[in-house]
Write a structure and sequence with these properties.
Largest sheet: 8 strands, mixed, barrel
Number of strands: 17
Structural class: alpha/beta
Strand content: 5-15%
Bound molecules: ligand C2E, calcium ion
Shape: rod-shaped
Length: about 675
């Protein structure tokens, strides 16, 4: 019984749980129901008119007038709701009204039509039967999207009309009544199928809409995550590049300028190493927060590691950009209070301005990166704006890079040799091989420029191999047992394959490996200490020596001496600049000399240019000396002549020899 009630309720109710269906039904009704009411109105007018003279006014005028008014009002209200946004609740409510009205109006219309049956003749009765049947069936068809309304109509209008006709007494009316029942059942059946298909269609559409919406939401979430740095919550590199491109487009359209910069933290790595990655991460978050508070006109992103990208939104002058850049570096210098310690770091900032520094996002970014790199080397802790000077440097570098790519290395690379002498006797004890490049396009290019570019362009190994081969070939022709120093770059000691190639070159030469020293700078060691250690052992395995060049210019000089298999230190020439005036410089040189003596290391003082410097050094003890005072770097043939004429070659009393040595000192 209970199940029957529930089933019945489910047929006649409008469920609230399918809002899309309710709205779709109302949308369809808003097109069909006005047509249905128009049909009802016309049919009602026709029936009232045909009975006008036969039946009383209340049946042919008053009741039809009321029914037509109600129909007209319903037509308008459906037409109106079809033009408006409607909520699911409103749609359900309207559908319930429709079901009720279908029952009430269906019954009222039928009663009215059947009330006319008793007036007039067989023709007018036929009209009534026709009106009732056709109108009922027409309405059922129009209500096909709401099965409940059609069923209610069938029960309140079709059923009673059919019964009435069946019992009207005439065979023809009985036939019409029977016809009506058969057609109504068929219509209900078709309608029920159609209604199910309609429900399925709307459900599928809803599911599709829902999954499209979910996919859209998911896409939006993915996009948000893809554009966000997970640690700091700042926009990430991808988002930064998108913003840069957008800024560029807008600035080009408006003819405005803007600036973009890359900020790199100074002193972050030691904090990460000493306090651990968790502390490092926390510091990065705090830096991100501080940078974000600089102002709304500044767009901040984390590019990766301890690097942040910044875009200055407004059109600013160079001075304003510089001031803002300095302000940002200053903000990072303010200590960061972390849980267990205070972090003191700094920031170096490379900035480029559109349009002066470039007209594409790529170039602007690269130029910011370039000035950052320059500042990191020479002006740590400062904000630097890309200028014409930097552009000239880039052009020069590009020229050098291109020249190197196209160079015939054997023909264009050569070596000069600078002698190392005994501080007390002036007798040469060795020589340093210094690279020279004579480019057919660029002319003479200094090694401090082309070695760096050879490193960048990946040609350094080829350059070093050529130079080593040439050095050993030339030096093996020299008389005596002088040592030869050969410079290696950071990239040389980074590749074990390359070091093996260098070992082969040494072994295949006529030069005794014991007389060969490889010079390595602190910056070269800095990259990877354990690899450097292995490389130095390989070189020492040849029987050659290792010298630490430019000693005292880096920060971990002493730890290298302690941990690496080093034979010799070369005191950097910066200590010699003012050694004749500054007692501290003297004390430093003396301390290094003592250190070498205690550790049994060989020592060379570089950059001796004046007699006064020589005198001071001589006062500190006996050592090896290199500098313009004794010899400038000389081509191999001149170096050979110098050697033959030097005091060691027992030419002391020869005036010509003295003159050549003097000339060399003057060069
Ligand atoms: P370095 O190894 O420190 O070489 C010494 C540099 O100081 C040489 O410059 C030399 O000419 C210069 N010098 C020597 N005595 C004096 C002096 O009394 N006063 C002054 N002011 N300078 C002096 P150079 O030949 O221009 O070489 C510059 C740098 O280029 C070298 O510095 C070295 O780092 C690099 N380099 C030179 N040749 C090679 C090479 O074959 N391979 C590699 N990887 N680097 C090289
Ligand atoms: Ca050197
Ligand atoms: Ca040096």
């Amino acid at each position: 019984m209970l199940r029957k009630q529930t089933w019945l309720r489910s047929i006649f109710s409008v469920p609230n749980d399918n809002p899309d269906l309710a709205i779709a039904q109302i949308r369809t009704f808003s097109r069909q129901i006005p047509i249905m009411y128009c049909m009802v109105i016309v049919n009602t007018l026709a029936l009232a008119y045909s009975h006008h003279t036969l039946a009383p006014d209340w049946l042919t005028v008053h009741i039809p007038a009321v029914l037509i008014s109600i129909s007209a009002f319903r037509t308008y209200s459906y037409w109106h709701s079809g033009r408006q946004e409607i909520s699911a609740i409103q749609a359900c409510r309207q559908l319930r009204h429709t079901i009720i009205l279908a029952g009430v109006l269906g019954a009222v219309f039928s009663i009215w039509a059947l009330a006319l049956f008793s007036y007039g003749n067989a023709y007018t009765q036929g009209h009534v039967a026709f009106f009732s049947s056709v109108t009922c069936l027409g309405i059922m068809v129009c209500l096909m999207h709401l099965k409940a309304a059609a069923i209610v109509l069938a029960l309140t209008a079709v059923g009673p009309t059919a019964l009435f006709l069946l019992y009207a007494g005439h065979q023809e009316f009985r036939a019409v009544g029977l016809n009506l029942i058969i057609v109504a059942v068929a219509v209900l059946y078709v309608l029920s199928n159609h209604s199910r298909s309609f429900v399925d269609l709307i459900s599928n559409q809803s599911a599709l809409k829902k999954s499209a919406l979910e996919a859209y939401e998911l896409g939006k979430e993915n996009e948000r995550l893809a554009n966000k740095d997970s640690l700091t919550g700042l926009p990430n590199r991808r988002r930064f590049m998108a913003e840069l491109n957008f800024r560029l487009k807008v600035s080009k359209e408006k003819g405005e300028s803007f600036a973009v910069g890359i900020l790199d933290l100074d002193g972050f790595k030691p904090i990460n190493d000493v306090y651990g990655h968790v502390a490092g991460d926390r510091l990065l978050v705090k830096v991100g927060e501080r940078l974000s508070q600089i102002g709304s006109e500044v767009f901040v992103a984390r590019l990766g590691g301890d690097e942040f990208g910044i875009i200055f939104q407004g059109a600013l002058s160079n001075t304003e950009i510089q001031e803002l850049g300095d302000h940002i570096c200053g903000a990072v210098e303010v200590p960061f209070e972390l849980e267990s310690f205070t972090a003191n770091i700094g920031a170096t900032f490379g900035i480029s301005r559109f349009p002066d520094a470039g007209s594409t996002a790529k170039i602007l970014f690269e130029h910011s990166d370039y000035v950052l790199y320059v500042a990191k080397e020479r002006l740590r802790g400062q904000a630097i704006l890309f200028s014409e000077k930097h552009q000239a440097e880039i052009n020069e570098t590009t020229g050098i890079m291109r020249g190197l790519q196209e160079a015939d290395m054997d023909a264009e690379l050569s070596l000069n040799y600078q002698f190392v002498v005994d501080s007390q006797t002036g007798i040469p004890v060795g020589a340093e091989a210094l690279a020279r490049w004579t480019s057919p396009v660029l002319g003479m290019v200094s090694p401090s420029k082309f070695i760096k570019n050879a490193e960048k362009s990946g040609l350094i190994n080829q350059v070093t191999e050529t130079l080593l081969r040439k050095t050993l070939a030339e030096a093996s022709k020299w008389p005596g047992d002088l040592f030869i120093s050969f410079n290696l770059s950071a990239h040389d000691i980074g590749s074990s394959h390359h070091i093996n190639r260098l070992s082969e070159i040494v072994q295949n030469s006529n030069f005794p490996p014991e007389r060969l020293t490889f010079e390595i700078t602190e910056t070269a060691l800095l990259r990877d200490l354990s690899r450097a250690h292995d490389t130095l052992q390989l070189l020492k395995g040849l029987g050659s020596k290792v010298a630490l060049d430019d000693f005292g210019t880096g920060y971990s000089s002493l730890s290298y001496v302690q941990n690496l298999p080093i034979d010799r230190l070369k005191i950097d020439r910066s200590f010699l600049h003012n050694i004749d005036q500054c007692r501290t410089s003297q004390a430093v040189v003396k301390a290094i000399l003592d250190l070498c003596e205690n550790l049994d290391l060989d020592c060379i003082v570089e950059g001796v240019e004046t007699e006064q410097q020589l005198k001071i050094l001589q006062g500190l003890g006996r050592m090896k000396i290199q500098g313009y005072l004794f010899s400038k770097p000389l081509p191999s043939s001149d170096a050979l002549t110098y050697l033959q004429l030097s005091p060691e070659a027992k030419f002391e009393n020869d005036a010509a020899a003295d003159e050549l040595v003097k000339q060399n000192r003057m060069r």
